[in-house]
Amino acid sequence: MAAHDPIDLHHRSERVVGVYLVATHDGLALFDCGPSTCVEALKAGLAERGLELTDLSHLLLSHIHLDHAGAAGTLVREHPALRVHVSEIGAPHVVDPTRLERSARRLYGDSFDTLWGELAPVPEGNVKVVGARVLGLDCFPSPGHASHHVCYLHGDGTLYAGDAAGVRIQPARHVMPVCPPPDVDVEGWFHTFQEIERRQPERLALVHFGVAESPSEHLALAREELAKWSERCAEGLDEQAWISAARRDLEAAVGGEADLWERAAPLWQSYLGMRRYWDKRNETS
Predict the structure, then answer these.
(1) Which of 217, 152, 230 is nearest to 188 (CA)?
(2) What is the pLDDT of residues 8-28, one digit of tens each?
């Protein structure tokens, strides 16, 4: 098994959510952790590698969305020495996830508990706000998908990208931006693509799903799809028409795996996030 292979958390199916082990100068870290509903799958994935939860010293969070960080509090409760690294914007919401849970329950309704499970708080003493360097990795803001998103660049050339580089379930040659509400920022996302390119990573570790070995090609595909999605919303396509167009593109690109991709990045959510972005833009213009 390659060093960069993700641990598949089997969230709703295989190849939807994957997290990564990261070697640091202060022990082993986990990049993102998935939701609480996947804790047993995480432990099983660690065991396959000869590890236990207590072998982890750090949790590096890209952002606080539940598919990336929902289990953080649960993991710290089981492993109180675990240190959780998160952006300054995201930190208060892992310490007190009440507002985050309330917002997510509005979005997911009755499916919240089945999808995400418990959203436990992380004790403030376990939370470390990230700076430009974290455990020997470069860390930088990467807004677009979310205002509080950060990426980590390892010295071996691996960029732990979270959702900043979109969704690409390997080995497909297609990239989908994932644009849930409330704070998608299209202009900020294009700037993030530039910031990633400027750092010249050798590979992109994607939570959804797997490692992209050609960052330049990947980011070109991501730009193309993000521009297309944004233009359709700017032109006034309603939800049904926008989702239908996006689904046609997806099916043309990945064929019978389109449903799998929609589990990782539901199109209805991306429409809502993109629509909110353009409504805010139009209000201020």
Answers:
(1) 230
(2) 999 989 999 999 999 999 999
